[in-house]
């Protein structure tokens, strides 16, 4: 029966065959250790579930415990930023007057005045956001968690299926025990691609749907050229990903389709007012601001 070699030992042996600089060598040691931890987690869950349910269930568990809380936090932070907008706008007007007065006294040119204004404005806005617990850098936390999770789990499943890993080559003598018959329906063998193309098409459709949902929800906002280019790039990526998934084993297909459609369900759920209220997210459309000079005829 095929045997999976310990991933850490395999990669360490691979390291000894080729010289690396110190920083890359440290990363090369930590990376296989992470994959080995993922493998241990998958094997632990598999003791209670068949392989197909292990992959799909663990994907939902990891997304719910790691990425969902960060996504909820980001939505709450955006709500706080919207609430803080009047304060920042008022403070910015005051700052502009102060810097203009200082610039006139010291004889600064427009470039010096504008540079000082932008510098102090960014500093103060950062202080306000940090004070209210919605620092800008925290809004970028989701991709820093979700992307490494997706890559590491994909490589771990690739290793367990008996496929070679990039830079490390062949790290196992064959697929993990039971993967060849651990599927369901027409995908009983999880070590080969989906012969019907059902899962690759589902992965591409889910990825494209996520892109279009985000584009539709921001249709009323003015987009920069960079944002438009990124949206079109992700659309192309969704199409390109179909033939990639068509050549991937079903272990990866199950993981990718579950993760992709988890994102679809999450994006849709975040647009439901009752869900947003339960998760303490700000409403999608803030209530209209009443003009203080408008008389109430009621």
Automatic annotation (TrEMBL):
Topology with respect to the bilayer: Multi-pass membrane protein
MF GO annotations: membrane insertase activity
Chain ranges passing through the membrane: 51-73, 139-157, 197-217, 237-257
Any one cellular-component term (Gene Ontology): mitochondrial inner membrane
Coiled coil: none
Location of this chain's protein in the cell: Membrane
Family annotation (InterPro entries): YidC/ALB3/OXA1/COX18, YidC/Oxa/ALB_C
Primary localisation category: membrane
GO annotation terms (biological process): mitochondrial respiratory chain complex IV assembly; protein insertion into mitochondrial inner membrane from matrix
Sequence ranges assigned to domain Membrane insertase YidC/Oxa/ALB C-terminal in this UniProt record: 51-269
Alphabetical UniProt keywords: Membrane, Transmembrane, Transmembrane helix
Similarity comment: family membership: Belongs to the OXA1/ALB3/YidC family.
Protein name per UniProt: Membrane insertase YidC/Oxa/ALB C-terminal domain-containing protein
Organism, as annotated: Circinella minor
């Amino acid at each position: 029966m095929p045997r999976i070699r310990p991933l850490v030992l395999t990669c360490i042996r691979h390291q000894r065959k080729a010289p690396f600089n110190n920083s890359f060598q440290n990363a090369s040691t930590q990376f296989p250790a992470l994959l080995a931890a993922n493998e241990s987690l998958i094997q632990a869950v598999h003791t209670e579930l068949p392989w197909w349910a292990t992959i799909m269930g663990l994907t939902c568990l990891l997304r719910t415990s790691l990425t969902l809380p960060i996504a909820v936090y980001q939505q709450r932070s955006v709500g706080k930023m919207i609430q803080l907008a009047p304060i920042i706008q008022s403070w910015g007007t005051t700052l502009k007057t102060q810097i203009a007065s200082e610039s006139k006294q010291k004889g600064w040119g427009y470039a010096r005045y504008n540079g000082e204004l932008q510098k102090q404005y960014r500093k103060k806005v950062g202080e306000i956001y940090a004070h209210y617990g919605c620092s800008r850098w925290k809004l970028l936390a989701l991709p820093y968690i979700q992307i490494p999770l997706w890559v590491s789990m994909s490589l771990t499943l690739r290793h367990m299926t008996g496929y070679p890993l990039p830079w490390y080559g062949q790290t196992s003598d064959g697929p993990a025990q039971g993967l060849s018959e651990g599927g369901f329906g027409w995908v009983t063998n999880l070590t080969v691609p989906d012969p019907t193309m059902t899962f690759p098409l589902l992965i591409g459709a889910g990825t494209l749907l996520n892109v279009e949902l985000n584009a539709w929800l921001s249709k009323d906002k003015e987009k920069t050229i960079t944002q438009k280019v990124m949206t079109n790039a992700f659309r192309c990526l969704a199409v390109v990903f179909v033939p990639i998934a068509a050549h991937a084993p079903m272990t990866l297909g199950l993981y990718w389709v579950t993760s992709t459609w988890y994102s679809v369900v999450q994006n849709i759920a975040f647009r439901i007012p009752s869900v947003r209220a339960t998760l303490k997210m700000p409403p999608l459309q803030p209530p209209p601001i009443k003009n203080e000079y408008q008389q109430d005829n009621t």
